[in-house]
Write the structure tokens for this entry.
Amino acid sequence: MPKPFPPPSPWASCGAGHVAVYGTLRAGGINDIARLDPDIVCMGHTMLTGTLYDLDWYPGLQLQGTQQVLAEVYPIDEALEQAMDRIEGIWPTDVGEYTKQVLPLLVDCVDGSQRSLNVLVYEALPPTVSGKPVLAVHDWLAWYRSQGRTYPGDRFALNTQKS
């Protein structure tokens, strides 16, 4: 019998003004961040350090390890952060796949400058990646496309409680 969902928790912002996306929220992914905010503009790129895992049609990044993983950086407000929390299965019910981390990162901005910013990163929790294949790639979206894989549909895909 599936476990019942716990009651919704109150939502809280992480306080970061930017997010680094490395998977399906990247431009061209099934959950392309521009679908949440059509006026959003990528401000640059950064490299996240950790270990990248294959979770089927989306990746999971653990921030422990030495692998460099490409991420796009976007400005966010609370409404966009809340929408991303829903996609990542953190709110209104935490399904236990990801947690939010705020990291100081050096961002290579599209205007050619570099800026140090506090950036929200969605980190996969240990049970999420346990037993999953490690991907020795720095660009998950390019890798995913090169594998000939397809997404489960053409609409936003949300993480859901697994039975």
Observations:
- Strands lie at 18-21, 44-54, 59-75, 98-109, 114-124.
- The longest helix spans residues 78-87.
- Residues 107 and 134 are 25 Å apart (CA to CA).
